[in-house]
Automatic annotation (TrEMBL):
Tyr recombinase domain sequence ranges: 119-319
Domain Core-binding (CB): 13-98
Family annotation (PROSITE patterns): CB, TYR_RECOMBINASE
Organism per entry: Achromobacter agilis
Lineage start: Bacteria, Pseudomonadati, Pseudomonadota, Betaproteobacteria, Burkholderiales
Record: active site: R162, K197, H271, R274, H297, Y306 (o-(3'-phospho-dna)-tyrosine intermediate)
Protein name: Tyrosine recombinase XerC
Family of the protein in this entry: Belongs to the 'phage' integrase family. XerC subfamily.
Cross-referenced InterPro entries: CB (IPR044068), DNA_brk_join_enz (IPR011010), Integrase-like_cat_sf (IPR013762), Integrase_catalytic (IPR002104), Integrase_recombinase_N (IPR010998), Integrase_SAM-like_N (IPR004107), Recomb_XerC (IPR011931), Tyrosine_recombinase_XerC/XerD (IPR023009)
């Protein structure tokens, strides 16, 4: 349950020109997602409000002030993860702005949020994933929307994509009329090329089951396409009912509905399939670097959390199979 102080909205006053310019830089040059930009904008508003209350111009804020601001937000109920996101936004802003105005250094450098216990990502078992994807033929209808949904689920699990990467995929690489693909499907190579966090591009293989589902969807895709669509919508791999690029919310709702109909005993959202992909590949291949590359993690420590899931899997197998395990599951 959220804390009222933690969920409070920042003041809605316009941001200073420097902050607005940084957000435009992230949008234009780094191609950050609207969701990420909204989060950064929110955290910059908190910084502006705290600085105003302290009577400090942004270029006069020092490391000690930042620590005071963080302590205040923590006292108001902001948790470690929330504060880490706050500091990431502030640090990024000053890293960009400080050289431009010749500040001596980044006032956020070295400031860290309190440590939070890191929970394990939620992943389906192999059996649950198969129940989700290998539904009875009667449940997998042949109309375009149903074939699209099956292709999306197969691709999420096959390639471990983020939701934003999935909906950003184009049918093929396009560059025309001022539009250029950020991510696309390569049928010939059986891979997807995606633009992940921080504008980092990567190629991820697509398995045979996903390729089969994608071909079935592509065959009926023209039934949902619009002749009058914008270049961005016309290029999209996955389309919604109105012929435009499918929205993240529709993907979330469709996945939850299909999982419930398949009898999966847990709430399933797109990131659960990403976690399941990573966990299952690691269980089989034991290649942490390969999983890191396919997931697009900048730091291998982010990927290492899946080794804990793998250990849980091995521990359960030991408890069930070893005649003298003598352990409680």
């Amino acid at each position: 349950m959220g804390n009222a102080a933690q969920d409070a909205d920042p003041p809605e006053a316009p941001l200073p020109d420097a902050m607005s310019a940084w957000l435009r830089h992230l949008e234009t040059n780094r191609r950050y997602s609207p969701h990420t930009l909204d989060g950064y904008r929110r955290e910059l508003r908190f910084l502006r409000a705290l600085a105003d209350k302290a009577g400090l111009p942004l270029d006069k804020i020092g490391n000690g002030h930042i620590r005071q601001f963080v302590a205040r937000l923590h006292a108001e109920g902001r948790g470690p993860r929330s504060l880490a996101r706050t500091l990431a936004a502030w640090r990024g802003f000053y890293q960009w702005w400080a050289p431009a105005i010749e500040l001596a250094g980044n006032p956020v450098a070295g400031v860290r949020a309190p440590k939070a216990p890191r929970g394990l990502p939620k992943a389906l078992s192999v059996e649950q994933t198969q129940a989700l994807l290998d539904r009875a033929p009667a449940q997998v209808a042949t109309e375009p929307a149903a074939l699209r949904d099956q292709a999306m689920l197969e691709l999420l699990y096959s390639s471990g994509l983020r939701l934003s990467e999935l909906v950003g995929l184009d049918l093929r690489y396009e560059r025309a009329g001022g539009y250029e693909s950020r991510g696309w499907l390569s049928l010939d190579e059986a891979e997807v090329i995606v633009l992940g966090k921080g504008g980092k591009r990567r190629s991820v293989p697509v398995g045979q089951a996903a390729m089969d589902a994608l071909r079935k969807w592509i065959a009926v895709r023209p039934q949902l396409a619009l002749f009058t669509a914008s270049p961005e919508d016309a290029a999209a791999l996955f389309l919604g009912a109105r012929g435009r690029r499918i929205s993240p919310r529709v993907v979330q709702l469709q996945l939850a509905r299909i999982a419930q109909a398949a009898g999966v005993p847990t709430h399933v959202h797109p990131h659960v399939l990403r976690h399941s992909f990573a966990s299952h590949v690691l269980q089989s291949a034991q290649d942490l670097r390969a999983v890191q590359e396919m997931l697009g993690h900048a730091n291998i420590s982010t990927t290492q959390v899946y080794t804990r899931l793998d250990f849980q899997h091995l521990a359960r197998a030991y408890d069930q199979a070893h005649p003298r395990a003598g352990r409680k599951s």
